[in-house]
Amino acid sequence: MPVDLSKPPAVEGSWARPDRYWPALTDATSHLEAPLAAVDLGALHHNVRDLRRRAAGTPIRVASKSVRSRTILDAVTALDGYAGVLAFTLPEALWLAEGDDAHPPHDDVVVGYPTADRTAIARLASSPELAARVTLMVDSLAQLDLVDSVAAPSTRPALRVCLDLDASWRAPILGHLGVRRSPVHTAAQARDLAAAIAGRGGFTLVGLMSYEAQIAGVGDDVRGQSARSQLVRWMQRRSKDELLERRGLAVAAVRQVAELEFVNGGGTGSVEFTASDPAITEIAAGSGLFGPHLFDTYRGFTPAPAAAFALSVVRKPMPHIATVLGGGWIASGPPARDRVPLPVWPPGLRLLPTEMAGEVQTPVTGKAAAALKVGDRVWFRHCKAGELSEHVDAFAVVDDGRTVGTAPTYRGEGKTFL
């Protein structure tokens, strides 16, 4: 079913009352078997508007990795303030750009990471239509060489490419802070690569991207970790100052040799900062649409828990412990306790430190566990957004306490891109 986010939800702010929100989700999905995942339209609508408010007029390119449902991608990208998709693989980008009878083609898809998929490159190179809709990510000439080895420039349309600028902070004492992405760090390096692309047949440089993971992806208000949180805030202030200057210089340098259509930056956690950068023309964001528990550690914004999953209690090994079936849906990143699903309803549940979330079973304890019976449901929030979609075929779409349809995930459409 199509999801319409252009109209206000039937109920505003229901997610702000957990004592009503989670029981309502339980009742709305009681006819469905667990494990199941649900998206509440009211909460999703709140997150859509809040991201747009935070962007303050800068267009948002939706990061598909954080959604992985064409139904929801279609609904969000159709709204004012949202423009284009940031895909995570080239096969996914081609699929989105092609569309089908149920889903319109997306005509502006940037692949957020370089590709070495020769089959997908050949498909892109064989279609002028797809070549006009999809932009490849590059950070070295070796990636261009790979494309040329699959389809020589004389045999294909010019392919759109985006230059990936490293946004990490190389702190004087702390060293590298951020993710290991592009080797292109300085304005001079960016200009040199841009000039090489511009002077080479078969490619058109149309964009520049830089993802400030150390700002967007690190919470600055971790409960019980005051000293760490203060250090993170200090790091982020310094990193912002450094990046504003360096990114501005890099964009100016690249514009000397190429007419850029867009300059992309940011993530859900850094929307306000990225929007304040005069060099930026668009912001990448996606996780904030679903509001996973990763963002519970951020001071600047509070997304609604729009997406969650429910598991059934199947045994009571002890009166104060209830065991649900499944649950080991661990988020990517450094292996740590904050990467596991968070039990949120009934309130007061916690995982056992010696077992945590297991592939086949997950025991929970706490005051509420004693009251749980076999067949009852426990609601969890995933640490990250789109990874939840890899565990279910579809989201139950809930509005005003009723399941009004489903939103298939990539998995539900038979696609596993990564």
Question: What attributes characterize this protein structure?
Answer:
23% strand, single chain, eight-stranded parallel barrel, globular, 418 residues, alpha/beta, 29% helix
Overview of the molecule:
With 418 residues, this protein is α/β, with parallel strands linked by helices. Helix content is 29%, strand content 23%. The protein has helices spanning 18-28, 41-55, 70-77, 90-98, 118-125, 128-133, 141-150, 187-198, 213-216, 226-255, 271-276, 287-290, and strands at residues 36-40, 60-63, 82-87, 109-111, 134-138, 159-164, 169-171, 175-177, 203-210, 262-265, 282-285, 307-318, 321-325, 342-345, 350-351, 361-365, 377-381, 394-399, 402-408. Strands 1, 12, 13, 14, 15, 16, 17, 18 and 19 form a nine-stranded mixed β-sheet that branches.
Quote the average pLDDT: 95
Residue windows where pLDDT falls under 50 for at least 5 positions: none
Overall form: globular
Question: Over the alpha carbons, how many angstroms does the gyration radius reach?
Answer: 22 Å
Beta fraction of the residues?
15-25%
Secondary-structure class? alpha/beta
So how many helices? Answer: 12
> Major beta sheet, specifics?
9 strands, mixed
| Percent in helix | 25-40%
User: Based on DSSP secondary structure assignment, what is the total number of beta strands?
Assistant: 19
Instruction: Measure the end-to-end span.
Output: 25 Å
Blueprint of the fold:
Blueprint: H1 18-28, E1 36-40, H2 41-55, E2 60-63, H3 70-77, E3 82-87, H4 90-98, E4 109-111, H5 118-125, H6 128-133, E5 134-138, H7 141-150, E6 159-164, E7 169-171, E8 175-177, H8 187-198, E9 203-210, H9 213-216, H10 226-255, E10 262-265, H11 271-276, E11 282-285, H12 287-290, E12 307-318, E13 321-325, E14 342-345, E15 350-351, E16 361-365, E17 377-381, E18 394-399, E19 402-408
Helix pairs in contact: 8-10
